Predict the 3D structure of the following.
Amino acid sequence: MVTVELLLKTLMKIYCDPNMTVELINSGGDHRGKILFFKSENLKINFFEIKKNYARGGHYHDYPVTYVLISGKIEHRMKSLDTNEEIIETISSPAIIKLPINTANLIFAIKNSIFLEMFDVEYESKIFDEYRNYVIDKNKILETDESSSNLSIENQFQDSRGKIFFCKFGDININLIEINEGYARGGHFHNFDSEHIILTGEIKYFENDLVTNSELIKIIKNPEIIITKSNIAHMFLGIKNSYFVETFSGNYDAIFFNKYRKIVDEKMKN
């Protein structure tokens, strides 16, 4: 089985533009889970795991931060230092959280969770005592810890369109997918619902309802989430080099939708 650290390092390689150099600058972790710190030019990307019943955060920054909940369920708290307004939410994946400047936050894991954190300045944080005390209290090592995760890479594949990493996190499938500019992916439909989190780049998204034959076409820029229902044909066209995460439960199965699949095949020939 591949370790969490190796998986997260692999994820970082595909989250950034292929022409950019991604470096692992540090790593850490404790009984709450792993943290890896990466840098790609000015972009800092931190991956972290939060095991069930533990917490992270308890500080604030003087710059905005974007979080992407890739898998799991959390309670997220944030409080503005300017207005003292507090927002407490229960959030399930997939989700995007925008944290404004000078806003304290903490994350409590209701389920085992995987997060992505992104910002483009040098890291700096200041402790927010109210939240930090909560984090410290929640992070006492549990006598009975049922939160062990099972994160692993099952397989990987590469062609002219880019790479796909097939991963598992518990009973959830997580496919990490690259689309090079000018290429397409998909061209099929499934008998299950799937979620797509656009991380970087720009994509033209197509979907066709097999019952009504109605079609939806839209341009998607990161970060954005797409929920694709079962028996809805879909296709992704890379306007720019792009990366997204696809998640679903159960065994993978796909049936070609000829109208879209022809486009996918033609783009690969050009």
Summary: The longest helix spans residues 4-15. The radius of gyration is 19 Å.
